[in-house]
Amino acid sequence: MRLVGVAALSLGACAAHAAPCAYVVHESSNTVSVVDLVASTVTATVAVGENPRAVALSPDGTRAYVVNGFARTMSVIDTATNTVVDTNPAGRDPRDVAVSSDGRRLYVANGSSDAVGVLDAATLGFIVEEIPVGNAPRAVALTPDDARAYVVSVVANRVSVIDTETTTVIDDIPVGAGPLDVAVSPDGRFAYVTNGNAVSAISTRTNRIEVSLRIGNSPRNVAVAPNGTRLYATNADTVFVIDTPAHVIDLGRPVTSPRALAVAPDSQRVYVASGHALLVLDPLARSVGADIPVGDDPVSLAIADIAGRCGVPACVGDCGADGAVTVDEVLTLVGITLGTASMSACPSGDADGDGEVGIAEIIAAVRGALGECGPHSSLPNGAQIC
To answer: Domain locations in the chain?
Structure first.
């Protein structure tokens, strides 16, 4: 077999090595939508347990953890395939979940037991079944060093501080009425809590409120940009952009009934779940982009850079899974076809799963190296050439 002009091939872009993806929880349909935030499209819909409430992603982006309120379980989604790979008990009425920075522990706020459970992420078994906190814990967030967990209790009107080494509450911080959400700054200096008519900045050094910014009735969600420069908070009809070094409100943007809030990994976009869509906010340009339709009743979302295109099949011939098909990888496929190389050298070359690399797969890899994108009609399972 002869490939013309292989040596002249340029490196082409394949499915992005790590693309920003959103996992959006739909409470009423018991599903999670997977959204490619570059293409602004839903790439998968995953069935989970009854009454899903919240989602968190592992630090490496390989797992999405979804807590299901009525089912009292946690569903674990493999983000490479967007399938549920495990379901285990998570406590009574799980409301929120946070993942430690090393990905080894999961902290679940359980509303009916007034407690936080700690689970082993590898086995989903309980390390500590119940750490008593305030009445009706609603949200939990960890400091970057995982030393402390901050838990808001919506009925108790307080924030409990858990020492994660001893798994005991070491402080209780009174806040305004009905605290609903908490987020910790990337430098670990502040825990931000929506409560009363404000978002409050709690010093993690003193565990006392340093400043409260009034944002109107029914404060709901709060999130901090990964670069630490901005804080975002919502009330019943507005999303607020707050300068974090100065703790000054920079912008208020109307939005209809926001239910959830998350910031892109590069800190350049903010996504607000509202109605049947994600609202896209560019805080630097002070503009709102086109909505991304995601389906009914979105109540929680998490965003991370996920290898591949949010679960879209990998490109044919991307042997190194680095997001590009190279000349050497095309030649590796030719070697597999001729019998001079092993299939283990490039498993992604076998797009149809027959244990061989055929002509259609080599052509797909060549087109990928040339930068031509799209599904290959002769290949199954949506295999990509891109």
So the answer is: 6-13+313-385, 18-307
Claim: this prediction has a pTM higher than 0.85: no
Buried b (16+ CB within 10 A) or exposed e, 272-287: bbbbebbbbbebeeee
What is the token pair recorded at 155? 């009925």
Residue 129, by phi and psi: left (phi above 0), alpha (psi -120 to 50) or beta?
alpha
183 dihedral zone (left: phi>0; alpha: psi -120 to 50; beta):
beta
- CATH number for region 6-13+313-385: 1.10.1330
For 74-127, write each residue's pLDDT tens digit. Answer: 999 999 889 999 999 999 999 999 999 999 999 999 999 999 999 999 999 999
CA–CA distance, 215 with 248 (Å, rounded to integer): 11
Nearest 10 degrees: Cα torsion 119, 143, 49, 79: -100
Q: How far from chain centre, in Å, is Cα 290?
A: 21
For residue 319, the model assigns a pLDDT of 79
310-325: per-residue pLDDT in tens?
876 567 887 776 667 8
Please tell me the distance from the alpha carbon of residue 232 to that of residue 221, in angstroms, as a whole number.
8
What is the SS3 assignment for 298-334?
EEEEEEEEEEEECCECCECCCCCCCCEECHHHHHHHH
Q: Are 160 and 148 in contact (CB under 8 A)?
A: no
18-307 maps to which CATH number? 2.130.10.10
Q: Say if residue 45 is exposed, middle or buried (CB neighbours under 10 Å; 0-12, 13-18, 19+).
A: middle
H or E segment and range at residue 94: strand 94-99
